[in-house]
Write the structure tokens for this entry.
Amino acid sequence: MKGENASLPSPSRGKVSRERVTDEGKEKTNKQRPHPPLRGAPQEGAENLFFLPLFHFGGAKMKLLIAYAGKTGGSADMCALLASLLPSHAATVCDLSKTDPVLGDYDYIVFGGAVRFSKLCRPARRFLRAHEAEIAALPHTLFLTCAFADQFENYVDMIFPASVRDTAEHTVYFGGELDPRKAGGLDRILIRAARNRILESEDRDAALPGLLPEHVRMLADALRGR
């Protein structure tokens, strides 16, 4: 986690249920796999957590913008889940390929999306370029969906400018999928190739990646404290 306003402890690397590829190429479902930490998310079982919000909203609902761009639906699903877990907030989920929201209408922003060729999808990149200063000035969380968990930290540093990255309260990994059925054209070819490399690997611990709703729930827990 980056940003001096954050006060939630960083977790150790958690383990979640994953698929495993056996020698015969069959997938099993109870393999435990580590994932990169959620910067700024609470540790499992942590006690006496406290959060120092930048603003106090009294009895009014916090106006929360969840803005994303993606290609295959993973980011959309995780953003919809996050909104559903925060019924006490006035949450708006915005697909940046369709809408350019007015940030001044919101108290807090959760921003991110899918990684494609080591970059955010184009609508999210455009939004970030146009509104970098506004995002940095608002309380915010950053997230990425990508299939390569070991690259998450590198992607965060490459994708988000320091002004936004260093002021983020949380930077969260939402996981990612390699499902060629959800892609088209060149994306489908590349996804199928990456998937086949895992399925054909001789590494018994090789695992197909997946979305991580448990990380979304951890973020929702943190945001409820605002």
Remarks:
- The domain at 60-176+211-226 is CATH 3.40.50.360 (Rossmann fold).
- The CA atoms of residues 83 and 91 lie 6 Å apart.
- The first strand starts at residue 15 and ends at 21.
- The longest helix spans residues 122-137.
